[in-house]
Batch of 2 targets.
Target 1
Amino acid sequence: MSKINKVAVIGTGVIGAGWIIRCLAHNKTVYAFDKDIKLKKNLILEIKRAWPFAKKLFNKKKLNLKNFHFFTSIEETLKDADFIQECATENYALKTKLMSIIGKHAKKNAIISSSSSGLLPTRIYSKCKNPERAMIGHPFNPVYMCPGVEIVPGKKTSKKYLNQANKFYKSISMNPIMVKKELPGYLADRLQEALWREGLHIINEGYATTEDLDRAIEDGPGLRWSLMGTFLTFHLAGGKAGMKHMLEQFGPALKLPWTKLKAPKLSKKLASRLISGTSKQAKGKSVAMISNIRDQYLVELQKLRKKYENKIRN
Ligand SMILES: NC(=O)c1ccc[n+]([C@@H]2O[C@H](COP(=O)([O-])OP(=O)(O)OC[C@H]3O[C@@H](n4cnc5c(N)ncnc54)[C@H](O)[C@@H]3O)[C@@H](O)[C@H]2O)c1
């Protein structure tokens, strides 16, 4: 297949908007659709809010909205697209139905990829007529800033289309991870979910606030995680002998009751601690204001990271 330049984005909430901005920053033509057509106005506002950051990260000159088309019919949106990125609400029934519609109207050979955060591709494509070219392409928010994307095959996905998707994501400056076979939650969300569940227990039982737990990550593991993940970090924690000594010293802790992993009940009391805790942390700033600060930080952090990660990886 020649280079993929025409991309359809189905569902234009937080993640759909992020894909649109990343694709526009890489000169792709974007066809967008959302079942709620009123969202078009907000979407344009979000593209304009995020553009200065995307522009800086990808060294672009100006935003070309001529490449952006918002349609009110899904058939029209899919008609010319070579790559379809589905970003609708996370729900098995909804996505399975949507994928059967997408499969019906997708162009011959178009790749279908879902942004799902953890649903099994074999299940969401069970009624799609072309599962061989369908997969998960799970990104991270904000999609225009984070280069990560997990490509997860369903049981019927063909290698040929997985490779084409890999190439496409690389063409929009992403670093795809090819997950070997489908699993619920894929990779990063399984790890995030474990941390989230433990955090909910700690808050539920009154040991700390949302702010305390965020600081515990921000000032410690989080600082290291932007350069290296848990495994390489723990290799260094073992001193000269690396992972071998780390396992000797901390291996026994695996038997201590440090984690519960099973999620606590999301009671009204717990939800209210989470909502009031994070709202206090926001100090009156809107989500858009904090997003601007985060984006500016991520632009500078990634430039710094590039400099240092090359020293480890090469
Ligand atoms: N928010 C995140 O951090 C995040 C990160 C990675 C992946 N995801 C995944 O991305 C997907 C979208 O999540 P989001 O956070 O953008 O949700 P969201 O609620 O912000 O947006 C979902 C959009 O889908 C639209 N929609 C629903 N049904 C539709 C249909 N049948 N056809 C067209 N549009 C439809 C809704 O109107 C809404 O605008 C989910 O699968 C989610 O798991 C989310």
Target 2
Amino acid sequence: MGKLLLAPMEGLADPLLRDLLTRVGGYDGAVTEFVRVSGSLLPLRTFRRIGPELANGSRTSSGTPMAVQLLGSDPACLAENAARLATLRPAGIDLNFGCPAPTVNRHGGGAMLLADPELLCRIASAVRRAVPAEIPFTAKMRLGVDDTEKTLDCARALEAGGIVNLVVHARTKAERYQPPAHWEWVARIREAVRLPVTANGEVWTVDDHARCRAVSGSADVMLGRGAVADPFLARHIRAGLAGESLPPGREADWQALLPLLAEYWLRVQQRVTAPHAPGRLKMWLALLRRTFPAGEALFQAVRTLRGVDEMTRVLRAHGVPLPLPAA
Ligand SMILES: Cc1cc2nc3c(=O)[nH]c(=O)nc-3n(C[C@H](O)[C@H](O)[C@H](O)COP(=O)(O)O)c2cc1C
């Protein structure tokens, strides 16, 4: 059938959204937002904050295994932190070689490392030595910094470093998040290495998933923004692969989503301070509007709001089942 993984998305797929999306279902695994490693040995609480699922056997509340992602550029420091993380028994340890953020890249981390395949190999080898063999050790890369000149060398370097699975976000750093994703490059990487390769990038619909698998040749696919834009995407992909026909229209899905939006809104207010809460929900709605007409209407209704109470009022007026304040 092939695996479906929920992508790491810093600032978007936080523990709360991971919990909701994996509860809707269809995912074989998820990855945390990146944990930034720069120079020091992080306290255990940092890993636990980014991956509270670690306290639950490294599974989301619905039982989906969750790997923890590390981002850094120093082999020894990454290895030391990976060893510490391993004591918390994560379902996997993943290395980030794809982040295009200038603050991360200035320190030589994320996608900038793709300029130096030899360093990639040293990083992966050092972390491999530090992580017990029974914890799956994986990596996620883009195609390169500005071009695809070193793509295959990077993939081979990571394989030589001992990773057991490679997720390929099929774009260069320079391409950031612009469509298209070059799934054909995933196919080229698959020919260059022996390890399993997971395709990632621009899968928004059931049809995209089928085309991504056909072009990349990868059975396993990681869903990023598409998973947030359509919380039912993984489930519909699974149903389609099982030969079930999809329900017509999206109205039933939107109705099923309303209680999840209510839950998210209530829980996000506990997780972040009041001034930040509306922004978090707006980020989710900004993607949901791609899939659901009612999501577009709701997004437009809340986009200029800043206060928690007015957000709650407007959400309620749009059918989000939020409890009324006690009289
Ligand atoms: C808001 C946001 C945050 C992201 N954070 C991470 C991250 O922490 N680690 C990582 O490896 N990739 C991160 N990514 C990249 C995604 O995991 C994924 O590779 C990318 O979005 C392409 O997939 P998509 O087209 O399905 O969204 C992030 C992407 C977005 C949109």
